[in-house]
User: Which sequence fits this backbone?
């Protein structure tokens, strides 16, 4: 970064020239940082779109499988009724097995409903991360605009840069919203009736 | 006659999963994409229970809860919160605003139906 260049031991005109260069570099640096933060934001949005798209498709697929299972269930019951008068034991046993399989598929689908909610949790976490990145970008730009280094041109040190970044991080943290998702796994959440 | 549930969530996949679970149990489901949409729909439908998320654009779940409780029909209608949030502070806000219960995502379809059955009578 331009701010890292110390200007100690320079004449007044050299310092003025140096300051002008630093200001120009500062603007460039801001634009670059802004572009970089924008690209991070775009990548987070891309992850969100991919996850949401995949989850929406999976939900549709699971819904379709569920409907097919119900049809299958009804069909097995109908066949069972038709086969019953004949009293064919092997057929009834087979149908019984079919019913067990159909029940098992329905149970698995219910469990999938719980797991598929990861999409919503991921979306919220990505939105939170995007807000944090945005807030950090804004605070870094604000601190750079305030330009404490300009006043101290020539005395600029790595320490002042670190201080600026630290200030920006703290401001971003203070202004940031609480994290909306604390879950560390996909176990069912708590239920409380008031 | 089937009871009607208003399901409010900005996540399309969550709305679909809630609808899939509730319709499978014989409930009518009206879906809303955020608090404002829910408020508009609540005025036009006879709803027996509201199941709402908290973090949504335009109008969040807590504001929706507060506004619904001001409507005569919704004074005693069960309103359940279904959210990723589980902090005591936000739960207390929900309770104070008139929530009937708090369910933390991810939900289990069976448990969701049990809770709804319990509060809807």
Assistant:
């Amino acid at each position: 970064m331009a701010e890292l260049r110390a200007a100690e031991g320079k004449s007044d005109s050299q310092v003025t020239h140096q300051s002008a260069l630093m200001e120009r570099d500062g603007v460039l640096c801001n634009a670059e940082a802004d572009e970089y933060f924008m690209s991070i934001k775009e990548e987070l949005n891309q992850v969100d779109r991919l996850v949401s798209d995949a989850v929406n498709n999976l939900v549709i697929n699971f819904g379709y499988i569920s409907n097919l299972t119900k049809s299958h269930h009804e069909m097995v019951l109908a066949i069972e009724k038709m086969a019953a008068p004949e009293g064919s034991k092997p057929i009834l046993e087979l149908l019984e097995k079919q019913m067990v399989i159909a029940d098992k598929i329905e149970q698995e689908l219910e469990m999938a409903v719980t797991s598929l909610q990861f999409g919503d949790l991921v979306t919220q976490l990505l939105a939170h991360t995007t807000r944090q990145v945005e807030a950090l970008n804004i605070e870094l730009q604000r601190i750079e605009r305030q330009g404490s280094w300009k006043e101290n041109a020539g005395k600029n040190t790595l320490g002042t840069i670190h201080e600026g970044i630290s200030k920006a991080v703290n401001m971003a943290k203070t202004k940031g919203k609480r994290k909306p998702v604390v879950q560390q796994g996909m176990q069912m959440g708590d239920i409380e009736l008031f | 006659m089937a009871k009607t549930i208003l399901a409010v969530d900005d996540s399309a996949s969550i709305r679909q999963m809630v609808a899939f679970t509730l319709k499978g149990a014989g409930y009518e489901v009206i879906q809303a994409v955020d608090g404002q949409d829910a408020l508009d729909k609540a005025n036009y439908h006879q709803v027996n229970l509201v199941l709402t998320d908290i973090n949504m654009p335009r109008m969040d779940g807590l504001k929706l809860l507060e506004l619904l409780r001001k409507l005569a029909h919704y004074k005693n209608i069960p309103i359940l919160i279904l959210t990723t949030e589980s902090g005591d502070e936000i739960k207390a806000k929900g309770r104070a605003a008139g929530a009937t219960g708090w369910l933390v995502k991810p939900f289990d379809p069976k448990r969701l139906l049990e809770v709804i059955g319990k509060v809807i009578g």
User: Anything to note?
Assistant: Chain B has five helices and five strands.
